[in-house]
Structure formats: structure tokens, C-alpha cells
Design brief:
Elements lengths: L1 H5 L1 H37 L7 H33 L5 E7 L10 E7 L5 E8 L4 E8 L10 H11 L4 E4 L8 H8 L1
Parallel strand pairs: 1-5
Antiparallel strand pairs: 1-2, 2-3, 3-4
């Protein structure tokens, strides 16, 4: 111990230097910690000064509102889909020359069906001096009365998905008037 007593001043001076160095290191670490704390606060605060928790709660509320709107839209789409089943969805159209005095396929048979294959067949017979238009009901793809060839073709086209238009201006095919004359 006598040995340490002779160097007591040097030891105290060395410890003082170490304390000063430690103090400087602590001040540097504190400054870095303050800078990091400021940066974290800036990152965690929103543009309006709100903190991260408030921003997350706001985003969560908006997300819940969006989900509720999506559910409402899904219900509306389901209702619209159900309503669409009763709308015209299948169309078949055949144009033809019903009378010998008119050319250009001015007469037509038009089948309009819904998703249940129900609807109507509309036929328009146009001649040079007269025109007639009439309709026949269709229920589940069937009609009560007899159909002309063109009406049958229009109905078949609609039942097959339709939306095609054909013109049956074939020279070998007799006109409606000729077919009626041959029956009578």
C-alpha cells in the first residue's frame, strides 16, 4: 500500500482525466439520442401534427367505412342481378322477304327472351302497300300456337344465346305469301 500512496496524485489525476472523457462520451451519446428522438417523433407524427396512434385509428375507421360501403354495394349488385333475370337478355332476329312485291328483307321476326327463356316473338310483315305486326308469347322457351319458319329460327337463335341477325333471302325459299297460298 505504501507503493500506492506515493503515486496517489497521479492516480487521482488519471481518474479525473477518465471521468472527463467519460463525461464527454456521455454528452455525445446524449446529443445523438436527442437527434434520434427528434427524428422518431417526426416519423411518427403526421402532416397535421397528429401522432401515429391517432393516424392509425383514423385509417382503421376509414377502412371500416370502406368495408361497410363494399358490403352495401355487394347487396345492391345482388339485387340488380336478380332483377336482371327478368330483363331481355337473349335476342334472335331473322329478316326476310315476306311478300314477292318487296325486296330488301324488310320483314322480320324478333325473339326477345329473359333469363328464364320467357318473353315474346314479334313479327313484322311489310309489303309494298300494307304492313302487319303481331306478337306471340313465349314461356320457358315454348309457345302456345304454331310458329312460322322465321319465327322458329328467331326463337332458336335467341335460345342459343342469340344477338345474331340473319337474312334469309335465299332464292329457293318461298315467301310467306307463297307458303300461305300453298296451305290454302
Amino acid at each position: 500500500m505504501d507503493f500506492l500512496k506515493s503515486y496517489l496524485v497521479e492516480i487521482v489525476a488519471g481518474l479525473a482525466v477518465l471521468a472527463v472523457i467519460q463525461m464527454l462520451m456521455l454528452m455525445g451519446a446524449n446529443a445523438r439520442l436527442n437527434r434520434m428522438n427528434k427524428t422518431v417523433r417526426q416519423i411518427l407524427s403526421g402532416p397535421g401534427g397528429e401522432d401515429l396512434e391517432v393516424m392509425l385509428n383514423r385509417c382503421l375507421g376509414e377502412s371500416r367505412q370502406s368495408l361497410a360501403r363494399c358490403d352495401d354495394l355487394a347487396e345492391q349488385i345482388g339485387g340488380a342481378t336478380a332483377a336482371m333475370r327478368g330483363c331481355v337478355q337473349k335476342i334472335g332476329m331473322v329478316r326476310y322477304d315476306a311478300f314477292g312485291d318487296v325486296s330488301g328483307a324488310q320483314s322480320f321476326s324478333l325473339a326477345l327472351l329473359d333469363d328464364h327463356d320467357s318473353g315474346a316473338i314479334l313479327t313484322g310483315l311489310l309489303g309494298r302497300h300494307a304492313g302487319r305486326c303481331f306478337g306471340k308469347p313465349v314461356v320457358d322457351g315454348q309457345t302456345e300456337g304454331a310458329l312460322s319458319d322465321e319465327e322458329t329460327q328467331a326463337l332458336t337463335m335467341a335460345l342459343g344465346g342469340g344477338l345474331k341477325e340473319t337474312s334469309s333471302r335465299v332464292a329457293e325459299k318461298p315467301t310467306r305469301r307463297e307458303r300461305l297460298r300453298d296451305r290454302g
